[in-house]
Every structure is written in structure tokens, then in C-alpha cells.
Backbone:
């Protein structure tokens, strides 16, 4: 479980930092946790008390990160695909495509979606997921090295 949760936390955090920096540079709202909160606030009265920075959007964002990292873990552990920067980047790109589809569907079914520059948001989203994949791979391999060294020394 450590090989999923810790890389998921690191990768989702790296992706989020990327999104916040990207948003600041282009001066557009591309911050996923805030967008999640905005969508929830506009969906139903049950979420009217939320703000852009409410915890719920962050929790959802990180849970999706755990899901994606669990899929990455399964691929690296059981499909004979080595965890490399390339595989992390490719899987991040694929996750970005899935993310674009998910966000596009969400905006389509939402009764009052926020006004976004969708083309730039989706390009950003793919890049952010590449950051997710690469940082997740680096963390996963780092933890694997620690696990192997502990096994070799008899600590575990």
C-alpha cells in the first residue's frame, strides 16, 4: 500500500503545484481543487456553503490521484512494464487524456459549469498529468529501492 499512497500524495502534490504555477503564469483558473469546489457549489444547494478553497475539492482531487497511482502500480507490478521516466510520462499522458474526457463530461452534464478557456485547460491538464506520472514514477522507484535495501539488510 505504501507503493501506492506515498507516490500518489507526491505525484498529486507535484501536479497541483504545476497547475497553480501554470494558472498564475497564464492568469486563468486551472486549479483542479478549486474547480471541483466551484462545480460542487453550483450543482446543488447542499454544497452552497463551500468556498473555492474548501477541503472537499482537495479530498476529491487527492482520491483521484490515489486511483490513478493504483492503476500505475498495477501496470508496473503485473504487466512487465518497467517503472521508468518514459513509462511514467506515457502513463501520465494517458491519464491526462482520461482526465480531459472526465472533465469534459463533467462540464457537459453540469447545469452551470464555470467559464473556462477549455482548449488551454485541456492542454494544461495533459501536461499536469505528465508531471503526475513522472513524479509518481520517481517516488515509486525511490520507495522500491528502500524496500529492496531493507530486505537485503534483513530489517524488514
Residues:
Amino acid at each position: 500500500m505504501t507503493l501506492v499512497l506515498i507516490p500518489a500524495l507526491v505525484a498529486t502534490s507535484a501536479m497541483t503545484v504545476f497547475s497553480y504555477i501554470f494558472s498564475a503564469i497564464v492568469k486563468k483558473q486551472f486549479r483542479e481543487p478549486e474547480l471541483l469546489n466551484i462545480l460542487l457549489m453550483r450543482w446543488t444547494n447542499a454544497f452552497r456553503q463551500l468556498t473555492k478553497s474548501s477541503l472537499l475539492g482537495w479530498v476529491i482531487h487527492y482520491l483521484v490521484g490515489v486511483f490513478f497511482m493504483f492503476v500505475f502500480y498495477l501496470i508496473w507490478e503485473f504487466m512487465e512494464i518497467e517503472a521508468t521516466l518514459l513509462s511514467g510520462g506515457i502513463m501520465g499522458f494517458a491519464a491526462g487524456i482520461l482526465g480531459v474526457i472526465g472533465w469534459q463530461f463533467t462540464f457537459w452534464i453540469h447545469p452551470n459549469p464555470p467559464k473556462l478557456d477549455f482548449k488551454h485547460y485541456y492542454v494544461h491538464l495533459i501536461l499536469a498529468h505528465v508531471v503526475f506520472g513522472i513524479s509518481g514514477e520517481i517516488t515509486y522507484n525511490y520507495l522500491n529501492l528502500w524496500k529492496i535495501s531493507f530486505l537485503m539488510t534483513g530489517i524488514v
Observations:
- The CA atoms of residues 15 and 128 lie 5 Å apart.
